Amino acid sequence: MIRIVLPQHLRTLARVNGEVVLKVEGPVTQRSVLDVLEATYPTLRGTIRDHVTQQRRAFIRFFACEQDLSLESPDARLPDAVAIGEEPFLVVGAMAGG
Amino acid sequence: MSGVRVLVGTRKGAFVLTSDGKRERWDVSGPHFAGWEIFHVKGSPVDQNRLYASQSSGWFGQLIQRSNDGGKTWEPVGNKFTYEGVPGTHLWYDGTQHPWEFKRVWHLEPSLTDSDTVYAGAEDAALFRSADGGQTWEELSGLRTHSSGPRWQPGAGGMCLHTIVLDPSDPKRIYIAISAAGVFRTDDAGKTWRPVNHGLKSGSIPDPTADVGHCVHRIAMHPSRPNVLFMQKHWDIMRSDDAGESWREVSGNLPTDFGFPIDVHAHEPETIYVVPIKSDSEHFVPDGKLRVYRSRTGGNEWEALTKGLPQTDCYVNVLRDAMAVDSLDECGVYFGTTGGQVYASANAGDSWAPIVRDLPAIFSVEVQTLP
After folding, report:
1. Which residues of B are less than 8 Å from A51 in CB distance?
2. Which CATH number belongs to the domain containing residue A46 in this structure?
3. Domain for residue B70, yes or no?
4. B285-308 pLDDT tens trace
5. Is B99 part of the contact surface with chain A (CB cutoff 8 Å)?
6. ipTM
7. What is the pTM of this model?
8. DSSP assignments along chain A, one per residue
9. Does a structural domain hold residue A58?
10. Which domain holds residue B184?
């Protein structure tokens, strides 16, 4: 099972509390995780990545295992610790303000 | 007893203000969608419990919310706004061509005849329509692909389609306004469009009387006289008596004719309201005084309405969609400020009182008159 931590606004939108836990078939990548996430919570479509291009929105970051994976290929495998559920996959709103 | 529901969009959420027909005591609910920018909330004239809201965020993009119970509960509907075909380019601030990119929905205009049909005005400028209650959106691309499109350019707030006016006497006629392109009209339900800006003069563009390029801030119509339009342009209050074919200035004795909103009294089609703003470089009311100006003659002759409004040390703005009227026997007028106040007048503007004082900066105010 894959653990996903969403930013507060997206938890509210998806009407979930805490982590989201999803079963992902096949290779665990950004794309496969987000495909399952959006299929499970359709209201999240377009909020993390573009509807058409599927590119990550500019101010969204992906973190896991204390690494910034945002610029990795969406088809690159996520760390094993994410794939086996030891560590969560974090969807983060980029820091802004001041 | 009749009542009023005021729908308020702010920089950090939506609020619903309700009162009975006296409009003295108000119930405030919200924030709905706390933390999100709510550019516009508007109800269907066919079903007053059907509301649509444009919710957006720099992080998470655009959402559309729909309510079927007058704003008590909401559900997100479709948010896929895709330009039809290859989007092409428009004029950028530096004079180069720039690709069309969807950013947000500024304005939602529910159909006059079908609660499931709603129009959305977008930045970068385009008009979308949903016929299924907001679940799916289709671009009326004849507007964006007009031959003048490459000459449209963004105003300071972006290249937004911010005004949609539906003609109650002709379901195929729609007016829209874009900053900074001007007013366009369709007479075939959105298939084809043409600019209707003859008579506008804008000193900030190379050809002041060009057919497109004007920074129109808002247009308004009284439903009993659909050929008469009023306009708050960047500078100038304008009027058309021929469905936009020609415009003439009616700024008259206003202290400044820069501003954003313009609206028409519910029962007096020659009575109009504006809120003069000091200038395009100082976006606040002149002299620290918040004054609505009313003309009972369709323009040119204006009177300041000040009773109940702050007349010292006030430096707020009133944005283009942040004024509305109710249709009770004595017309109510409402507006919201960038300082977070919503003011209401239950006597056509003669006197005012705040409904709320400390909301986030207000983007939009719409009013529903309830049976």
Report:
1. 79-80, 82
2. 3.10.20.30
3. no
4. 999 999 999 999 999 999 999 999
5. no
6. 0.94
7. 0.96
8. -EEEE--HHHHHHHT--S-EEE---SS-BHHHHHHHHHHH-GGGTTTSB-TTT-PBPTTEEEEETTEE-TTS-TTSBPPHHHHTTSSPEEEEEPP---
9. yes
10. 82-370
